[in-house]
Batch of 2 targets.
Target 1
Amino acid sequence: MFLQSIRRGFVPQASTPEPREVRIRVRAGYEPGTVVSRAGQPLRLIFRREDQLVCTEEVVFPFFGRSATLPAGEDVPIDLLPTEPGVYAFTCGWGMLSGLLVVTGEDGRRFR
Ligand SMILES: [Cu+2]
């Protein structure tokens, strides 16, 4: 199997898992408000804002140094690769609304 792959010109890559997609609906808050994942698992959080509040127009992941503008009615993906177990908040641009990203150890345990 491996040799056949090489003969076909397929170069095996060091396996990075596919991003796990989680949809988060934004409606004067985040639904779900808590996302649980594992360290080392690439995450694609897909935000969709269904309200018209100025408040929810931006989402911020302070620890990851990431933020995004959320136009109403559009899917906005944010790709993250959490490598350390912990609990990370994400908030609206003004820090009034928040959700949590809970990252377990790679063995699925909550904390080491
Ligand atoms: Cu806000």
Note: Residues 35 and 104 are 11 Å apart (CA to CA).
Target 2
Amino acid sequence: MDIRPEPFEPPAPIPRTIPPSRLEIIKVMFRNPLELWGKPSYTLPWMQVKFFGQLTTICHDPSLIKHVLVDNAGNYAMQPIRQLVLRPILRDGLLTAEGDVWKRSRKAMAPVFTPRHAKGFAGQMLKMTEAFAERYAEPAKKNAEVNIATGMTELTYEILAETLFSGEIATGTEGFAERVDSLLHNMGRIDPLDLLLAPSWMPRITRIPGRKALKAFRQIVSDTMDARRRKMDSRETVPDDFLTLLLKIEGPDGLTRDEIEDNILTFIGAGHETTARALAWALYCIAESPHFRAAMEEEIDRVLSDGADPVDWLDLMPHVRAAFEEAMRLYPPAPSINRAPIEDDTWTSADGKTITLPKGESVLVMPWTLHRHELYWDRPRHFMPERFLPANRDKIHRFQYLPFGAGPRICIGATFALQEAVIALAVLMKRYRFDVTDSTRPWPVQRLTTQPLNGIALRVSAR
Ligand code: HEM
């Protein structure tokens, strides 16, 4: 007899049954795009709708997604609106670069993100998480509530700062985190002019306050790079961090100095809030699933008492990894992957229907709806990490689960993020137990990432 309790259904907008009016679409787009999607978006293999005058193709059929992201990826550019928002900040960083610059940068940066280098960061990830865990010691004594959303942002920021610069920041670490915060705040904003696809030289009123901050921030990154370069040139010992790795590939076949600077900003922008969101959602869903939490605690205790090297935790802790992957299914940190065909394209489904994807129109691959899609998932709205355990993993189609995207532009930091997440969850759950309280009522909103409105309050206690 199966005595497992009913799986937990975490909060999410109920799919609409009546299409919103034009005015409502605009309001919801600014308030929370996740609330926009109707029943068809969670049940049909693809849809074509007019959206702000653009024909938008929403792709769910895994073979259509493979066509767009992999088989015919060369025909798909980043969507103009995303570029209008991000490019003024990240310039030619990998996330926003296109064409030959992207090709050369991706090739040059591949060695920086090998699994060997990610593993090399495991020690720093462990050290930073252990230091962070101390901050919960006092609240745990009082069984007090902590806001896990801000906590995880601090933790992943500290890990990123350590693996990027090893603490060697030109102005000192003081105040740097606040600058990063303001940068991210500025990054996530869509200005009304962006929606109208106005050219990038037209000033965006909503982003004016961020411009000075961005300039100052770039100056600090630039000074930090110069200081490290001087050290490298004078053959002093330098830390084995991202900054050193990037400066080593400066040159005609690698990256220019400006591109290195752009990529440092990109790593800060793409590489910590994403992981932080997924960690916070994971801790929340785990707190609501005591049965699975018990299996995770048993696994963590066993692996840690064997003294395993943190480099191997990702492989040794399938339950921890499964919980994190399931949290990214329900709350994908990147809820939408947006493209625009460079030339007209067509695709034919297995049952012989052909659709046209016209040049310059909009193509969306949306992990948010794909991961909750009724055609592809059993009990799509429920938190069931068992799906991701090795015995069941093969049942998940490669193109029905896309937290890191797919194809040539797949997330370059995926291994880094997974390793970081498993180390963070293991260290925190070894020491503490997190529980929901009456004030735990998170609500997902789409900004740059899928984030909990007003944070996530969990009670922390010592195990
Ligand atoms: C849970 C954490 C993360 C998630 C869910 C995530 C998600 C994604 C997704 C979906 C894309 C593809 C976007 C597209 O195709 O339009 C992407 C690209 C990218 N990610 Fe991540 N990411 C994570 C962590 C990281 C980390 C830790 C780093 C770096 C340290 C990073 C750096 C990048 C970069 C540079 C790209 C652009 C790659 C390219 O276009 O060639 N990400 N990420």
Note: The CA atoms of residues 24 and 157 lie 36 Å apart.
